[in-house]
Amino acid sequence: MPNFIWPNLKRRDVGPAGEFSRVLHWMGVIAAGLCLLLAVEFAVEGWATHLSRDLVAAAVALALGARGLRYMLARE
């Protein structure tokens, strides 16, 4: 199961671009989490369901985009 979640092993020698992509990846994951938390808040309150759906889509896009960036630059 862990290979499905994180398919490639973390490498030691990724260089400056790889380290930068790791930082960007985690910043993107944190931003996606905040978008998801805000989407849940809007959905619970019930007055901004359309905005809530948009925030969920933005959270998914941020998470996948950040992961893709890390895959391209750090190759992991």
Key terms for this structure?
76 residues, 3 helices, 80% helix
Q: Please, could you describe this protein's structure?
A:
The chain is mainly α. The chain has three helices and no strands. The longest helix is centred in the middle third of the chain and has 31 residues. The chain is elongated and about 50 Å long.
List the helices and strands and how they pair.
Layout: H1 2-5, H2 15-45, H3 49-74
Strand content: under 5%
The Rg value, from CA coordinates, equals 15 Å
Question: What is the number of strand segments?
Answer: 0
Instruction: Report on the biggest sheet.
Output: none
Question: Which blocks of ≥5 consecutive residues have pLDDT under 50?
Answer: none
* Order of SSEs: HHH
Structural class based on helices, strands and sheet pairing: mainly alpha
| Large-scale geometry | elongated
Number of helices: 3
Give average pLDDT, whole number. 80
Termini gap: 17 Å
Report helical residue fraction.
over 70%
